[in-house]
Write a structure and sequence with these properties.
With 245 residues, the protein is of the alpha+beta class. It has two domains: 7-70, Arc Repressor Mutant, subunit A (Orthogonal Bundle), CATH 1.10.10; 78-233, Chorismate lyase-like (Chorismate lyase, 3-Layer(aba) Sandwich). Helix content is 26%, strand content 33%. It is built from seven helices and ten strands. The chain has helices spanning 7-20, 33-40, 44-56, 87-94, 112-118, 165-171, 190-196, and strands spanning 60-63, 67-70, 76-80, 98-109, 125-135, 138-148, 178-187, 203-212, 218-227, 231-235. The strands form three sheets. Strands 4-5-6-9-8-7 form a six-stranded antiparallel β-sheet. Helix 1 (7-20) packs across helix 3 and helix 2 crosses helix 3. The longest helix has 14 residues, at 7-20. Residues 5-73 form the HTH gntR-type domain.
Length: 245
Amino acid sequence: MDYRMPLYQQIKAAIQKKIENKEYLEGAAIPSERKLAEIYEVNRMTAKKAIDALVEEGYLYRVQGRGTFVHKENTQKIIWGNDALGLGAMLREKADTRRDKVLVKGLLKAFNFLGSKLDLAKYEDVYLLQRVRYANSEPFAVEYCYVPFKFFKDIDEHNFEHTSVYDYMKSKDHLPVEFNQKLIIIGAEERVAKQLQIAVGTPVYYFELISKDRYGNTVEYTETFVSCEKTVFSFYNEKRPTKKG
């Protein structure tokens, strides 16, 4: 080892070289932190620091309870900060080509679950828009978007394979400005796996998003499933100055 370079950086470089040389194949698990510590004769925290750096850079991703895996070469790296963007906006920034395919659209009734998510009374109308989002010709995400029909009476007249949902919501003066988001990793069930063209049980990011407009109305409840093999999300928080006085 080159002792002029921090140990974790040396281990990081060694793992990165194995990925580039195809010793660690795309989608395959790499050795555990404990095993890497044994291989490189370092403590486990040093091995963990090397893996953390490779996860941050998008070479690897973790699945709780299963291990650490090599990302595919066509991985999209998306950074989410304080100002939430729609998935379409993020794809426009990161993908060379993108398109959407509408699978299902139409009215539903707000029963207990949707009513609680959208702050609606029982039996109020909810509009469902289900889409598959494509990046660089590959299925990237499956999205189920639910909005209160009372705010968007002409929504069915629009083609959301070519129109941004948020642009449409803005035109109705109900653009989301406040976001409550949840992210977990789950195994893809059959319908999601089929739409993302992955095996059942493959890890996917599950996003739940509830948004409000500037008037405080809940205007969106969206569930999004994104393949872990094709994406790494980085999150940052920016501390903004507080007003004096």
